[in-house]
Amino acid sequence: MSGSSPDGAAAGTTRPRTSTRPRQELGRRLEAWLGRRLSGARLSGLEVPESNGMSSETVLFDLSWRDQAGEHQKGCAARLSPDPEAAPVFPVYDLSKQFRVMRLVAERSPVPVPDTLWDEPDPAPVGTPFFVMERVEGDVPPDVMPYPFGSWLSEAAPTDQRRLQDAAVRTLAAIHDAEVSADDVSFLELDERGDSALRRHVAHSASYYEWVVSDGARSPLIERAFAWLEEHWPAHEGGTRISWGDARIGNMMFRHFEPVAVLDWEMAATGPVEIDLGWMVYLHRFLDDIAVEAGLPGMPAFMRRDDVADTYEKARGRAPRDLDFYCLYAALRHAVVMSRVARRQVLFGEISMPEDPDDMIMHRASLEQMLEGSYWRRF
Fold it and tell me: From the candidates 7, 119, 166, 246, which is the catalytic residue?
């Protein structure tokens, strides 16, 4: 699930704790590791972005080294598995899988993915697995404060907002159009049982939910949503493609309202393209609902479901199907994430445990309205 995961907006305006790693020690160990790959490697300017995400940890730094051709410099970003002491959002973080899918998408599509430099699956060098990629400069729609609260995007002209929206959707279509075979993406297949990629995807989400509620505080609302999915299962699931997983504009970097980098692939899998479309549409609605509840105008004309579907159809020549199902599935998946994030906040003393487990779901009201069939009437 920064770029990063949607949990970055969990508290709307307050950022829950994300890591307990000492920055100076991390920088020293990372520099030593780089020095074994590049002569005279030096690391400087280490920083951690604060405006997005709190799942895998992102560390930005400048790298310099020398070789026979002279001195070199490169802006870099490292993605690290989260600190176990920070009660991670997800039970497993496969950094090598993220590295592989980024490299695969970069090789087989025109999608702007940062250059992947090194993958280190051994936790010994810095205390956790990580990989290093080239740093890309650009603007990211922030999670904290959420971009509909007032940001370079919400304050842009409507034509520029639409330009960014359409470009983001076309980029998503290009991910789905990546020229890959079943063997190429076999490492992205989920392990859960099921006779289709969608069945395995939903089963994976159900397994994640069981992990989250292992403390016994089960969510009647989330379980109602899983039952709703079974009752409304698509008659035709469509083809299986690479699913970015955390498909949202907060995981893209833009220059002049055009994407220059697609980030954060930790939720990548295989599945119907509508999984990503539902997530992209609903994750905007999630942030926009927060703004409206705070008394702000929000961005109601942005990322409207019909507009997104129309742009996607024009890009791929295929109309998305069953978006009611996939948008509710997105809201359900995000509800499980929110429930986990709330438990982290309880652990770190940032909030108290509510009596009703459903109150740990920040978008409880919208998920309830979606189950009732009333939510999308507003749009």
Answer: 246
pTM for the whole thing?
A: 0.92
Q: Whole-angstrom Cα distance, residue 277 to residue 266?
A: 17
Q: Which amino acid is at 356?
A: D
**Encoded tokens for 221:** 């609302």
Could you say which architecture CATH assigns to the domain 147-378? Alpha-Beta Complex (3.90)
Q: Does residue 56 have a pLDDT over 90?
A: no
CA 364 vs CA 86, 285, 327: distances in Å: 25, 13, 15
Where in the chain are the domains? 6-134, 147-378
pLDDT digits 0-9 by tens, 76-135? 999 999 887 778 999 999 999 999 999 999 999 999 999 999 999 999 999 999 999 999
Residue 223 makes CB contacts below 8 A (sequence gap 6+) with: none
Q: How confident is the model at residue 48 (pLDDT cuts 50, 70, 90)?
A: confident
Q: How confident is the model at residue 4 (pLDDT cuts 50, 70, 90)?
A: very low
Number of other residues whose CB lies within 10 A of the CB of residue 205: 19
What span, in angstroms and rounded, lies between the C-alpha atoms of 119 and 133? 9
Q: Which long-range contacts (CB under 8 A, 24 or more apart) does 346-349 make?
A: 347/87, 348/16, 348/17, 348/87
Q: How far is CA 311 from CA 102, 165, 237, 277, 304, in A?
A: 24, 9, 20, 11, 11
**Residue 227 to residue 222: CA distance in whole angstroms:** 9
As a whole number of angstroms, the distance between CA 258 and CA 260 comes to: 6
Q: Is 246 a known active-site residue?
A: yes
Assigned token pair, 220: 């009647």
| Residues 6 or more apart in contact with residue 137 via CB below 8 angstroms | 75, 253, 255, 260
Total residues found in the chain within this entry: 379
**What is the architecture, at CATH level 2, of domain 6-134?**
2-Layer Sandwich (3.30)
Cα→Cα distances 117→54, 78, 131, 135, 283, Å: 23, 10, 8, 11, 30
- The pLDDT score that the predictor gives to residue 87 is 85
